[in-house]
User: Fold this.
Amino acid sequence: MEIKRNPTRSVKVGNIFIGSAHPIAVQSMTATHTTDIDATVALVNDLHRAGAQDKVRYNPGHLYHHERNRPWQDKVKFIAETAAAHDCALRVGVNCGSVDPAQKEKFDDKDSLGPMLASAWEHCELLESIGFTRFVVSLKDSDPSKVVEVNRRFAEQRPDIPLHLGVTEAGLPPDGIIKTRIAFEQLIGRGIGDTIRVSLTVPNSKKAMEIEAGNQIIDDIRNGRLRSVVALDPSKLNIISCPSCSRVENEAFVELAQDVKEMTTYAKDYAITIAVMGCRVNGPGETDDADLGLWCGPSKVNLKKGEESLGAYPYDEILGVLRVELDKLIEKKKLESVAS
Assistant:
């Protein structure tokens, strides 16, 4: 499925471009001491072989820790001039745990996103004022819901600037991958995000796992294999299904998801979202936002309309019941269209 992206400008990073006119780039980060050249080069090569595409990052909040009497604007200008001289792109990396203290003072203690946004916008304005536009921005938090909200708000004001997505301190796999996946689904599914990193707690020898996870998440989003409910195209029928995992209690779930997709093609031009979830752990809650939701148990499939339960049906009967409910929704859409 082709996802309509925010119209971000193109930024050259090495031999690729990041922006809405280009595929979403997947990256990682070196975790070696850069003074250990051999180890750093080895890790870079590992990541490159895995398909990584990288750039240079600075954190606005960290600028205050060095040369404290020197204005942060001078420091940013030095970084930008050096990057330009060496044909490098920059990432303005705003992190929830190290926010610009000057911005933090302007906001209520309970508002963790306001200082992040103010800092990001301020740095964008400075870089552009000195003629440096070869940059992307990241706004990261350890809470996926905050990652979604802060990036959504940034994109509303600056839809032209490419965004690097990530959940900081995501943790160990597989939980760290799941936490990141949920944030990415909500953002990429709405056209927000041009490059991603899955931040996992793994040794350097396994850093390539971040690239593999990132590529898998993008492929799953493109093909509607989602853990959360998001309308990838709000004007069309959306069939989403979770990636199968060890929680699935009946392998018939996979075949059912495919059957639902095929059976509902006649409704492709209606703004309806159908979610097919494979387990009783995430399924009941994660189908709440869908127009019609199915979550699969060992012997029966539970059908929902929004948060309302419509009953549980055997696997060989659920498609017929689903079609009846889908036809009701289509008829309702037609009546609403005539009335408007």
